[in-house]
Amino acid sequence: MVIERSGFLLLAGTLAAGGVGGWLAHDSKSQRERAVVAPVAEPPLPVAAPSAPVAVVEHAPSTPGCDDSAGMPEDCPAVGPADEGVCSNVAAKRCADFKAAFKPRVAQAAVACLRHLKPNEMCDPSRVNLCGHSALMAACPDAASGQSGAPLEAPGNATPVSIACDAILKGCVGVPLGPTSNDCRQTLSGMTDAGRASMVACLATHCADKGLLGCEGLKTAPPARPQ
Prior knowledge:
Among the domains are: 57 residues; 73 residues, no CATH class. Helix content is 48%, strand content 0%. The protein is built from eight helices and no strands.
């Protein structure tokens, strides 16, 4: 058989190319199969850090109860020379009343309020009395006097505040818009014994026109007992 040299070389090149291509295809397929079946490396499990010791929170001791016996009122304000003859020094007079009728911490708040009044406000009785009233409304409640709504006559409620309010309420029976038991007890809770006695005496005759607000801290002599 006679085979031309050029034809032979072409045939040999074709066979060689086919062999190389087949090997490359086979090798590529093998690599893909290995990639599929190769096990996937699992990430390492996280190592738990040692837990910190649990802090034990201790409850702070309860704060002491409300106490109006601690406090020191400042000096009473004085009206300047320019106001003399125009103002009757209402603030100074009522300041002395507040100090005598209110417990120390309550008096301290009332006097501090008076000292912050403007000169024209010191001549206004309503504005001056408001300082005393605001201080009384912020006073510590008389826990034993039945301020939670219990009747004043209930056993265990016989305190100076409840006794005074009992007398006041009985004297104000039938008066329109008379004081309530809660209002009376809140007002008298911030007062001294002298202050409560003055309230009872004042409201015995002025429940209708002055009421609780008008009698707060007023120095009133107790009514004379019948002979």
